[in-house]
Amino acid sequence: MATSLNGGTSGIVARAQALFDDLSFTAARQWKAAEPNRKVVGYMPIYVPREIIHAAGFLPLGIVGGGDQLEVIHGDAYYQSYICRIPRSTIELGVSGRIDFVDGMLFPSICDVIRNLSGMWKLMFPNVYVRYFDVPQNYRDEIGGNYYINELAELRRDLGELRGKPITDEELSRSIALYNENRRLVHELYSFRAERPWLVPAAEVYLVIRAGLVLPVEQHTEMLRDYIAAARAEERPKRDNCRVVVTGVFCEQPPLNLIKSLELSGCYVVDDDLLLVTRWLTADVPTEGDPLRNLALAFLHHSESTSAKYEPDQKEKGQYLVRAVERTRAEGVIFASPSFCDPALLDRPMLQHVLKDAGIPYIAFKYAENSGQMQPIREQAGTFADSIKLWSGA
Ligand code: SF4
Fold first, then answer.
1. 378: which of 49, 251, 265, 321 fits an S-S bond (Cβ 3.0–4.6 Å)?
2. 40-43 vs 104-108, strand pairing mode
3. What value does the CA radius of gyration of the chain take, rounded to a whole number of Å?
4. Separation of 66 CA from ligand 1 center, angstroms?
5. Please, are residues 86 and 338 in contact by the beta-carbon 8 Å criterion?
6. Is 261 helix (H, G, I), strand (E, B) or coil?
């Protein structure tokens, strides 16, 4: 289904909202049913090379938990209470049959919770291809690079076996080109929002980007292009909001209402680390030469700096946040992390220290994907926005 400029941004956002609300993944089911031999490979946050899934002719399907609309009935029985919610709601999606059409699942190495989930998935769904997908912690070509090329080669081999035919270099390079185009538009949307945030509300940007987790990349690229064009053509009132960077999200996503609440409380979100898979790579991946080597070197040398990626240089720790604030002319940083997310919450004090040294104001709170009470967050973010205006002497 193509997106359209009819109705401006509202028609596109309505379609993205419908995809967001659909926890049975009807669009992906329909894509699979449209032709025999089509397969769907799910992936969890934060980063997997979707190009390889696409090159096999499969649909990469981003699974980011159940949000605030899914009642977790079975999932709680599999996990202790003191961890984040996304593994529980993902189990719920699995045992309730909502993702029973998915032929494979990739679990990227981000924390022990996800590692355990990948093992559980193997036991619970023995007919599904499951891979725990590791990324390098060393960024030297001859060490981390070679290691990662081997990881990518194994994934390529496995997915080739799943379809019954090896994935060729030409298929890979073609998919890389399609994802390059998609990432360029995602980056364009982010730049546009940083420039004129009142024209592209954070919740809309989130929905449009999130649609890319369930749509074929070709369709999502079209949606992005249409949305950017429609948003540029619209007039919207400019509010006296302050500009903030939202960070610390990792994989469990905040409820959509939380993102809306930030803007309602007086903050324009000018950068964030939501759904990083859609813009993890920061530059085009070359389409000439060995495609796996190209993907590996892009990860090593042209990927987002975030809490979710190991930073070997202590002097560089957190500097990406300072640069993001400068690049987007933000006036403050909001740390928003999932409750019980160890990697995010352990990193936060170090990042706060860097911001303090740079004189950048910040606040911090935690959420769960099904948090319902927005009033405390609205008050906290509203007070933060007011205090920034006072400090800046506006
Ligand atoms: S939200 Fe944090 S703790 Fe939970 S699975 Fe993701 S990285 Fe792990």
1. 265
2. parallel
3. 20
4. 14
5. yes
6. helix
CA of 366 to the centre of ligand 1 (A): 13
Q: Whose CA is nearest to atom 8 of ligand 1?
A: 111
d(CA 327, CA 39): 40
pTM score: 0.95
Give the model's pLDDT for residue 259.
96
Q: What are phi and psi of 62, to 5 degrees?
A: -75, 125
Other C-beta atoms closer than 10 Å to the C-beta of 350 total 13
Q: What are phi and psi of 373, to 5 degrees?
A: -90, 105
Does residue 2 surpass a pLDDT of 90? no
Greatest Cα pair distance, the chain, in angstroms, is: 65
Minimum-distance ligand 1 atom for the alpha carbon of 340: 3
Atom of ligand 1 nearest to the CA of 114: 5
Out of 111, 310, 370, give the residue to mutate to test ligand 1, the one with the largest number of ligand atoms within 8 Å of its CB: 111
Query: Which residues, other chains included, contact 335 with Cβ-Cβ below 8 Å and sequence gap of 6+?
Result: 247, 248, 348, 351, 352, 362, 363, 364, 365
Pocket test for ligand 1, best of 44, 46, 47, 84 (most atoms within 8 A of CB): 84
Place 226 in a pLDDT band, splitting at 50, 70 and 90.
Answer: very high
- Ligand 1 atom with the smallest distance to the CA of 45 is 6
DSSP string of 1-67, one letter each residue: ----STTHHHHHHHHHHHHHH-TT-HHHHHHHHTSTT--EEEE-SS---HHHHHHTTPEEEE----T
Out of 1-5, 6-10, 166-170, 346-350, give the one with best mean pLDDT.
166-170
Q: Dihedral of CA 376/377/379/383: which sign?
A: positive
User: Which atom of ligand 1 is nearest to 117's Cα?
Assistant: 5
* Confidence band, pLDDT 50/70/90 cuts, at residue 7: low
Query: Residue 230, SS3?
Result: helix
Provide the 3-class DSSP secondary structure of residue 320.
Answer: helix
Residue with tokens 């390889």: 52
Q: Nearest Cα to 98, choosing from 125, 133, 59, 126?
A: 125
339 lines ligand 1 (CB under 6 A): no
Confidence band, pLDDT 50/70/90 cuts, at residue 6: low
